[in-house]
């Protein structure tokens, strides 16, 4: 954060706390410079920023005053969360369970590992490593391996995106790409819009970067509510949105092309960045690959983030951001954190993409996932209470389940663990952590007898929860 932004943050906080009240004069630029030790230009910049946001008004010859309608502004803005969005402990617990091979992995964030072309990847990795020389580590520093960026660009060009290798920065997985992009687009204290049910990584990033989340209504049936987005953008000084337009995680919807186009034009009107989380881009079930919203972006307002973690190999940790003219700025952010993604792995993946039959693998993967989705939905219809609502996603490998009250996803999570079954509680996907009537299930494993039996057990547990009966140490109903 720059000095003037930090100063503006402090003053915003003081106005929120009513240390400076509506109509009151704030210290003069000179006095504030004297008191804070910042130069007068820095203080002036901070005051001008606050003026542009509506916190202060400037009166010629008199100085800066707190805006007369400040209370309305403050009450219209959400309070910064008092307690941080604290999903880390639960998330860590759920994540750790993913490694326990004794547990049925319905909570996993990754597809069944047997669906990845392990052998071919290992072959590509060793073949590429043999060609490495002493200079390789340096020549593949950010923005990353040229061939890899070229192949990624080629795939986008085929979808109508005007993208070249120089627009792309290779990162250490999709999450790194997303974090770097959000960090680039915001300063601590800024407002960021996210879907009302969203990927927990977005919530963690907002927490870590000290941003203020603004929820935009979204549902599995209707997708993102663009009217709500437009309204929130008019109400709050939102600097960036983190949204998924294809195979939204965990709701599973994909926005139509028209809505993506409208989304980009709304963001353009408000001069807001979109961090587009498109890590499920290759796992679509429609006949044609859905385009990202970035296709409609003429001004590099969309930072398109992708990854090989979901469709090729989670452990390789290779992702990217299509940053366009912001490529260098993203690389500078990268320089302060991960510096670069692994060079041998970049080379290995690029070798695989050139020689390994990637598209063939993807076709098989999508078809298998689609069959497995049907198998799990059938199991839910067979074993779960009739009142269970389940999504039918447009791709990916997650189902989002909704139960009526008094279902409690935390208690359900613990009861399922006692039966050696891992599920992801809905509370992980929502800022207020009040999605207690939801769970997310990963359907990428084959629905063999063992999995079917586990689904039957989950169904029984869900029935017991809804009947208000305790079947384990913890009672299932919400208190
Ligand atoms: C929506 C979404 N974005 C980003 C990521 C992170 O991707 P990666 O594993 O490539 O860092 C995930 C992983 O679960 C995800 O679900």
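Q: What amino acid sequence fits the structure above?
A:
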């Amino acid at each position: 954060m720059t000095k003037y932004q930090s100063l503006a943050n402090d003053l915003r906080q003081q106005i929120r706390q009513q240390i400076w009240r509506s109509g009151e004069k704030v210290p003069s630029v000179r006095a504030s410079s004297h008191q804070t030790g910042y130069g007068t230009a820095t203080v002036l910049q901070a005051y001008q920023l606050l003026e542009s946001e509506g916190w202060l008004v400037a009166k010629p010859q008199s100085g800066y005053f707190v805006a007369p309608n400040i209370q309305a502004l403050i009450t219209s803005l959400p309070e910064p969360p008092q307690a941080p969005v604290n999903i880390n402990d639960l998330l860590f617990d759920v994540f750790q369970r993913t490694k326990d091979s004794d547990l049925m992995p319905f909570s996993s964030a990754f597809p069944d590992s047997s669906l990845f072309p392990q052998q071919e990847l290992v072959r590509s990795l060793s073949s590429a490593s043999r060609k490495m020389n002493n200079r390789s580590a340096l020549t593949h520093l950010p923005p990353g391996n040229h061939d890899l960026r070229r192949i990624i660009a080629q795939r986008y060009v085929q979808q109508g995106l005007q993208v070249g290798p120089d627009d792309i920065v290779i990162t250490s997985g999709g999450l790194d790409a997303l974090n770097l992009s959000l960090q680039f687009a915001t300063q601590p204290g800024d407002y960021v819009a996210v879907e009302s049910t969203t990927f927990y990584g977005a919530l963690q990033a907002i927490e870590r970067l000290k941003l203020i989340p603004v929820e935009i209504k979204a549902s599995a049936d209707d997708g993102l509510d663009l009217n709500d987005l437009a309204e929130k953008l008019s109400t709050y000084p939102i600097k960036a949105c983190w949204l998924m337009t294809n195979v939204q995680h965990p709701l599973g919807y994909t926005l139509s092309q028209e809505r993506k186009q409208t989304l980009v034009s709304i963001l353009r009107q408000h001069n807001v960045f979109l961090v587009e989380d498109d890590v499920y881009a290759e796992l679509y079930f429609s006949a044609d690959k859905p385009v990202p919203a970035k296709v409609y972006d003429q001004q590099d307002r969309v930072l398109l983030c992708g990854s090989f973690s979901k469709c090729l190999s989670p452990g390789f940790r290779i992702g990217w951001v299509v940053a366009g003219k912001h490529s260098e700025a993203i690389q500078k952010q990268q320089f302060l954190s991960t510096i670069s993604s692994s060079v041998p792995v970049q080379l290995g993946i690029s070798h695989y993409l050139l020689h390994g039959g990637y598209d063939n693998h993807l076709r098989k993967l999508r078809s298998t996932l689609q069959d497995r989705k049907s198998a799990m939905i059938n199991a839910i219809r067979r074993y779960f209470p009739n009142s269970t609502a389940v999504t039918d996603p447009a791709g990916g490998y997650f189902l989002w389940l909704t139960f009526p009250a008094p279902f409690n996803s935390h208690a359900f999570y613990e009861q399922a663990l006692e039966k050696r079954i891992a599920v992801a509680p809905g509370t992980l996907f929502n800022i207020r952590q009040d999605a207690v009537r939801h769970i997310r299930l990963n359907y990428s494993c084959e629905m063999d007898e063992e999995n079917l039996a586990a689904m039957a057990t989950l169904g029984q547990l869900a029935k017991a929860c809804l009947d208000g009966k305790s079947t384990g140490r913890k009672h299932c109903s919400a208190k």
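Q: And what stands out in the fold?
A: The chain has three domains: 3-76, 88-114+360-466, 118-355.
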